Amino acid sequence: MIPTIDADRLWQSIMDIAAIGPTPEGGSCRLALTAEDAAARALFLRWCQTLGLHHEQDAIGNMFLRRAGTDAAAAAVAFGSHLDTVPTGGRFDGIAGVLAGLEVLRALDDAGIRTRAPLELVNWMNEEGSRFRPAMMGSRVAAGELPLEAALATTDDHGVSVARALLDSGQAGPLTPAPRDWSAWLELHIEQGPVMEATGAEIGIVVGTMHARYFQLTVTGEPSHVGPTEMNRRHDSLAAVAEVILAVEQIGLSGEPYGRASAGWIENVPNARGNVPHITRLHCDVRHNSANAAIAMEASLRQALADIALRRGVRIDVDPYATFGPIVFDTGLGALLRQKAADRQLSTRDMIAAAGHDSVLMAPLVPSAMLFVPSVAGITHNPKEYSTKDQVARGAQVLLDAVLELAGV
Ligand SMILES: [Zn+2]
């Protein structure tokens, strides 16, 4: 019997997870290691236990669900994504990848197929980085790119550490985070952009990622009273940051069509009505298909910061706290996905991922690849984020077919 994705079952699972941490506009909010994230993880785990999967969890909260193969010594074929969301999250970013993986295992059960190699389904911790930075924290720690101790000590905006949140949410596992014995890593994800819809591609073969560079800026001015302090005597950190944000936007605009620059987080001190602000922190990032172009964008940013600092008499400290990519995914796995899509008469398009993904951390360790399914109107990190039942199911079918070939029977 040829194993086949059950589109309705997969869709229902996505909707069941979306009902945890619902937002009024129809999206989901499940920040990493909150009660909502823990509830989604618990439901996911219950489903996995119904399938008899072996559950392991590491000390940073990554979940590994293993389906035994007939050859116990074989390296596992691994796949998955993340169940956490941003505050204005939709129903599909990350979730589609985890639950498509679950549906792969359910379909294999239905077909009575035991693969030769074991299969491992993964839910990575804190992919989004909304609550704790940096993003892709779980996979970063597992890959050895971020020390466990440093990750555990990271705090959210309320001073709660990752270590504390892991304990409070019951998500601290016993395993030491480490690369696992895998022969391949695959991640299905929504495109989060408009290209597939515009071109009619049903399956995106992600051949690589952009290069992204992340910064925290601290702008230091001078505290003063908004009444007596004449305008020309002020060193207003928030006003300086207003200029920085526009400069960041301009750098992104100049980098089109392959460049992006964004400023999405701000903290203002003392954030009080009677005070001229004197410390303002801003997170921003630049990204581009080409690493050299991204480095040039950073140079433009630094030049803009120097100009603004000089003109306004403020100090601007730059902490370049993370980078990722550019990653080139495994060409053999890309070819396999392309072939499996063609076998199902699905149209494909090679894509570059503009967002960060856990697969970026896996790529240097194990042959890795991603496949995209379309995002309606390219909307993401938004309650309106949407992919149709059939779009997700087609992607899951390609994932299943590829997994089956890699794991063998
Ligand atoms: Zn994601």
User: What molecules are bound to this protein?
Assistant: zinc ion
The spatial strand order of the largest sheet comes to 1-2-4-3-5-14-6-13
User: What is the chain-wise order of helices and strands?
Assistant: HHEEEHEHHHEHEEEHEEEHEHEHEH
Oligomer: single chain
What percent of residues are in strands? 15-25%
Report the average pLDDT across residues: 97
Structural class based on helices, strands and sheet pairing: alpha/beta
Task: State the distance separating the first and last CA atoms.
Answer: 12 Å
From the alpha-carbon coordinates, what is the Rg to the nearest angstrom? 22 Å
Number of helices: 12
Offer a few descriptive terms.
single chain; about 400 residues; alpha/beta; eight-stranded mixed beta sheet; four-stranded antiparallel beta sheet; 12 helices; about 25% strand; globular; binds zinc ion
Summarize the structure.
With 409 residues, this protein is an alpha/beta fold. It has 12 helices and 14 strands.
Topology:
Elements (H helix, E strand, L loop, with lengths): L6 H12 L16 H16 L3 E4 L5 E5 L8 E7 L12 H16 L8 E6 L12 H6 L5 H6 L8 H7 L13 E9 L4 H5 L3 E7 L1 E10 L3 E2 L11 H19 L3 E11 L5 E2 L2 E10 L2 H22 L2 E10 L6 H13 L4 E6 L4 H5 L5 E6 L15 H19 L2
Parallel strand pairs: 3-4, 3-5, 5-14, 6-13
Antiparallel strand pairs: 1-2, 2-4, 6-14, 7-11, 7-12, 8-10, 9-11
The structure holds zinc ion.
Zinc ion binds next to loops.
Could you describe the 3D structure shown?
The structure is a single chain. 36% of the residues lie in helices and 23% in strands. The two termini are 12 Å apart. The strands form 3 sheets. Strands 1-2-4-3-5-14-6-13 form an 8-stranded mixed sheet. It has a 4-stranded antiparallel sheet with strand order 9-11-7-12, with helices on one face. Strands 8-10 form a two-stranded antiparallel ribbon. Helix 3 links the parallel strand 3 and strand 4 (119-124). The protein is globular, with a radius of gyration of 22 Å. The longest helix has 22 residues, at 291-312. It contains 12 helices and 14 strands. With 409 residues, the chain is an alpha/beta fold. Zinc ion binds next to loops.
